[in-house]
UniProtKB/TrEMBL annotation:
<dbReference type="GO" id="GO:0016491">
    <property type="term" value="F:oxidoreductase activity"/>
</dbReference>
<feature type="domain" description="Rieske">
    <location>
        <begin position="43"/>
        <end position="152"/>
    </location>
</feature>
<dbReference type="InterPro" id="IPR017941">
    <property type="entry name" value="Rieske_2Fe-2S"/>
</dbReference>
<dbReference type="InterPro" id="IPR001663">
    <property type="entry name" value="Rng_hydr_dOase-A"/>
</dbReference>
<dbReference type="GO" id="GO:0051537">
    <property type="term" value="F:2 iron, 2 sulfur cluster binding"/>
</dbReference>
<dbReference type="Pfam" id="PF00848">
    <property type="entry name" value="Ring_hydroxyl_A"/>
</dbReference>
<dbReference type="GO" id="GO:0005506">
    <property type="term" value="F:iron ion binding"/>
</dbReference>
<dbReference type="InterPro" id="IPR015879">
    <property type="entry name" value="Ring_hydroxy_dOase_asu_C_dom"/>
</dbReference>
<protein>
    <submittedName>
        <fullName>Rieske 2Fe-2S domain-containing protein</fullName>
    </submittedName>
</protein>
<keyword id="KW-0411">Iron-sulfur</keyword>
<keyword id="KW-0408">Iron</keyword>
<keyword id="KW-0001">2Fe-2S</keyword>
<dbReference type="InterPro" id="IPR036922">
    <property type="entry name" value="Rieske_2Fe-2S_sf"/>
</dbReference>
<dbReference type="Pfam" id="PF00355">
    <property type="entry name" value="Rieske"/>
</dbReference>
<keyword id="KW-0479">Metal-binding</keyword>
<keyword id="KW-0560">Oxidoreductase</keyword>
Length: 402
């Protein structure tokens, strides 16, 4: 069933280092501090243009001490700002998403901002002397839209633009008509796990465990599933289905109902496809719609898993039922992965754990670790340095010490 991919992928080396990151990097506060900058200077997905269709609609996004609001202006343009009033730093919007009718009003002291982020006026303006409104608009954040999906980057970083980074997948996103997707009701979901974020990625970055750990996925597409690594910290995974009817109720009924949307190329027909983006974003497409999910680190031992779901605008009853069944399969898979993540993360503090020894089918995990090592070279050390020395050693290894 496997079709030829339209983009070049990296072959697994014949002889490669099958180890992973050392266990100490999963519970070190100093490493977590260094990882914070990795997340802030790499692109993060916030939502889709369909989440904020009307002027004044907004999405909020918090990560590692930074707060953003993405808002559609009266002119229809989507912009991103720090969710931070220029007066005292209060949130100008609170919650996951909402709408501001005509203006944003800070709930602390009532400063008013236009939907394009400019300051309309301060409460009791005479108390501020000569206040230059042009200097006190909401602070913008770098933002990019790729086939409808909205990305932020809080700090300048090593990645190119999203369009450049995801260029190999541009034709796939277009074939899936991603720009025209619609949010599924209140499309967001979240859960928190008592684990390091890397443990979540370690589970999700390989398909070796599908056969045993995910019986529904194995039954649906496990016979055909494969992971592919590309340059630039992106990857592609694909599983074809439809060659067998399935025994589990959700799988059996899903295979009966699922229909490809028109215009899909051969390598996307009758597939579930996953597009990964470093450090922790995955876009998942089925014939019925799409979702993205990612990990938001909270602390060395706490991670928020969150994402959003989307459907096609002309959805038929049959597609809606198939999408529901796909959600059931995915819900079970997520629960299974969460348990595996907890077990894996627990092992990192055990004296008996001697590190990973990876299969060729887990090369994606190693590729992810290699990218982290390149950015945080102190992770190459097998034994943990003193916590107080980690930042200095890392700077030294990067050649950044004066």
């Amino acid at each position: 069933m496997t079709a030829q991919l339209p983009f070049p992928t990296e072959a697994t080396p014949n002889d490669w280092d099958r180890s992973g990151l050392p266990a100490w990097t999963y519970h070190s506060p100093a490493i977590f501090d260094l990882e914070r900058e990795v997340f802030l200077n790499h692109w993060q997905v916030v939502g889709h243009a369909s989440d904020i269709p009307a002027p004044g609609d907004w999405l909020a996004f918090d990560i590692l001490g930074e707060r953003a609001v993405v808002m559609r202006g009266q002119d229809g343009v989507v912009r991103a700002f720090h969710n931070l009033c220029r007066h005292r730093g209060a949130r100008v919007v609170d919650g996951v998403q909402g709408n501001c009718r005509g203006a944003v009003v800070c709930p602390f002291h009532g400063w008013v901002y236009n939907l394009d982020g400019t300051l309309r006026g301060a409460a009791r303006p005479e108390s501020f002397g000569a206040l230059d409104r042009e200097k006190f608009g909401l602070k913008p954040i770098e933002m990019e839209c790729f086939h409808g999906f909205l990305f932020l980057r809080f700090h300048p970083g090593p990645q190119p633009s999203v369009a450049e980074l995801l260029a190999p997948f541009a034709e796939d996103f277009a074939a899936y008509r991603a720009a025209g997707l619609l949010a599924v009701g209140e499309s967001s979901w979240l859960t928190e796990l008592p684990v390091n974020w890397k443990s979540v990625r370690d589970v999700d970055n390989e398909g070796y465990h599908v056969a045993l750990a995910h019986p529904s996925l194995q039954e649906l597409y496990g016979r055909d599933y494969a992971d592919h690594q590309l340059q630039g910290g992106i990857n592609f995974s694909r599983g074809g289905f439809g060659d067998k009817p399935g025994r589990r109720w959700s799988v059996k009924e899903y295979v009966k109902l699922s229909e490809d949307p028109p215009g899909l190329p051969d390598h996307l027909k009758k597939t579930w496809t996953y597009y990964g983006m470093f450090p922790a974003i995955v876009f998942a497409f089925t014939p019925e719609g799409a979702q993205f999910y990612h990990e938001i680190p909270i602390g060395p031992g706490q991670t928020r898993l969150t994402g959003r779901q989307y459907r096609y605008p002309e959805e038929t009853r049959r597609q809606r039922l198939a999408r529901y069944l796909a959600m059931r399969i995915d819900r079970d898979t997520s629960a299974e992965d969460q348990q595996l993540t907890i077990w894996s993360n627990e092992s990192m503090k055990s004296q008996a754990f001697e590190g990973f020894h990876l299969s060729d089918l887990e090369y994606g995990l190693r590729a992810h670790h290699d990218r982290l090592r390149a950015l945080i070279p102190v992770m190459r050390l097998a034994k943990a340095p003193p916590e107080s020395e980690i930042a200095r050693l890392n700077a030294e290894m990067l050649g950044k010490l004066p």
